[in-house]
Specification:
This protein is of the alpha+beta class. About 20% of the residues lie in helices and about 20% in strands. It starts with 10 loop residues before the first helix and ends in an 8-residue tail after the last strand.
């Protein structure tokens, strides 16, 4: 188990998100955090971020590697 704790508030993460948003903008996509794709069922899915287009069609997903602590 690693002692490396990177949070969404750290500068490298903020820079990454800003860069991603700038790259998506020319295509008309936007970065949506905590994106929940439309689906049916008891257990809905949720990803850390997605890049939906103007038709709400996801063009990409971002899922961070999370460590579960017990």
């Amino acid at each position: 188990m690693s002692d490396f704790k990177l949070k969404a508030t750290h500068a490298p993460v903020k820079t990454y998100k800003e860069t991603l948003a700038k790259c998506a903008r020319p295509f008309g996509w936007m970065v949506v955090a905590e994106y929940q794709p439309p689906c049916t069922g008891k257990n809905p899915l949720r990803v850390d971020a997605a890049l939906p287009d103007a038709f709400n069609l996801p063009r990409g997903y971002w899922e961070a590697k999370d460590e579960k602590t017990t």
